[in-house]
Amino acid sequence: MSESATQVSLVLPVYKQAGFVAATVRSFEDVLGRLPIPHETILVVNGPDDGSLEICRKLELEFPAVRALAHDGSGWGSAVRRGIREARGDLICYTNSARTSAGTLLMILEYAIALPGIVIKANRKTRDSVWRHLGSLIFNLQCRALFDLSNFDVNGTPKVFPRSCARLLELRREDDLIDAEFLATCREQDYPILELPVVVTTRHAEGSTTNVTSAARLYLGAIGLRNQMRRETRLARVKRR
Predict the structure, then answer these.
(1) pTM of the entire structure?
(2) Which fold has domain 8-240?
């Protein structure tokens, strides 16, 4: 039986979020204080300097649980990996703060604390445009086929996992495909996953950075990730013989 968690580490990549990061972190800190165990919040500031780092430094002074990190790398995956490396808790969560409400974060973490040893993730119900919804559907169906997944929302966050799921501490993607790698690793390692539906009605950031070019890169990248993981699996089997 898995041991109960003793500390939560929340990883929040911060990319050009000077306009709303302070309000978001304050709302998160309010609900995190209701958890039955201590927490830390790791703000990983990456990308162009729009004033986000200075704001995060002030939040670090305002809240003892907050740590602000200036990250030289670029990409969603790079920031997530940096936060995971810095995390001290035995229950690790990362999320896209632009589309995560405080209530959703609290619910996901409460489930994770109550169900030790299980990976918990959000399955977002959004009101996106038809074209964005279609692009997301294609990507999710592609990942389900490539990696034999049963999940309905590959990129859905928050994602929470116990430190005992050790392979999730070793994710390598620097880009948006880290979420596909996350779920493919869970499938490969037989980590149990509970997917919880959440309704997303607002986006705090200026808008999605996804376009036709980036979507095509994502689709092709998923195929490359599948091929890479298959090669590594075959190599590991050969070494065990």
Answers:
(1) 0.93
(2) Spore Coat Polysaccharide Biosynthesis Protein SpsA; Chain A (3.90.550)
